[in-house]
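cron nightly-structures :: item 1 of 1
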Amino acid sequence: MTIEQPRIAGIGTAVPAHRITQCRAKELAGALFDDGVTNLDRMLAVFDRSGVRERFLCVEEAWFAEPHSFEERNAVYETEALALSLRSARRAMAIADVAPDDIGAVFYVSSTGFATPSLDSRLQQELGLPQHGVTRDATFGHGCAGGVGALGRAASWCRGNPGKSALVVATELCSLTFQLGQQSSTNVVAASLFSDGSAAAVIGPDGRGPQLVGHGSYLWPQTEEIMGWSHGSDGFEVILSRRVPAFLRRHVAESLEPVCRSVDISIDDLRHLALHPGGSGVIRALCEGLDVDECALRYSVDTLARFGNMSSPTALFVLDRHLRCGSMRPGEYGVVSAMGPGFAAEHVLFKC
């Protein structure tokens, strides 16, 4: 018996109200780090080569000039993450033209704050989803790869629950993790890249979007030090190794090959690459590792420039750009991919 592959029925995105240009972000960082960082002008040059043009933040500029406890940060997270998640989810459901009763599962992803019960329970209630029979799945700690992994798990759930749709929501408030008192190059690099946003996708039996035909996860052992968070009294502190671009250049293809083989295609058969951009160095590494020119990643480049690195929602923003602007022909294959803490990769193959 042939199993009908689930489709992307709709993607919705949302960003918070506070827009900041990269030029202004560099000025602000210069003022905030002025007393404690040696060679500050040289370090601030990372803002100019990050690939980011502007970003959106959930708090005003003045917030970053004051110290904040983890309790304060997390209170902002719970309120603002829920509001953004509702906006992206409602937009995705409207685009997909599904009613609340059509949703049988919610896959929620976030790694920049804590909530217990997890925010998917609030989403279920405020979106008017059924009280009974809705599967809830909340993922923490997968970082940038989280949204793609949830997309793959949602597709798998849909295959086992024909006729029902699943809602994926990835929301991150990376700006809340900024550490005012941490005078490190890693903190400066994070300040040059990270931003806030939410993306939601409805996956189900209907819709005109591409079919989700394969999902692969890849974990490289003993690479925990490459990317992640440490947790201090003031909240999350970023772990971000300089090794990331070089590692991707060497290993991205080996992580993608198994999932391509699972549907009897090769990497060369992928016509649409919706890849999480990370930063300008990551984009160059992905191009070299996959032997493509930057034009193949133009929507990744554009997303990074317009929104910065939002962690888990970012790859879904890129996928949305492919669906709305790309020239997809029936039968063509593509992939949405992201790498995150572990160090790990998530790949979801789609067929137009």
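cron nightly-structures :: done
The chain has ten helices and 13 strands.
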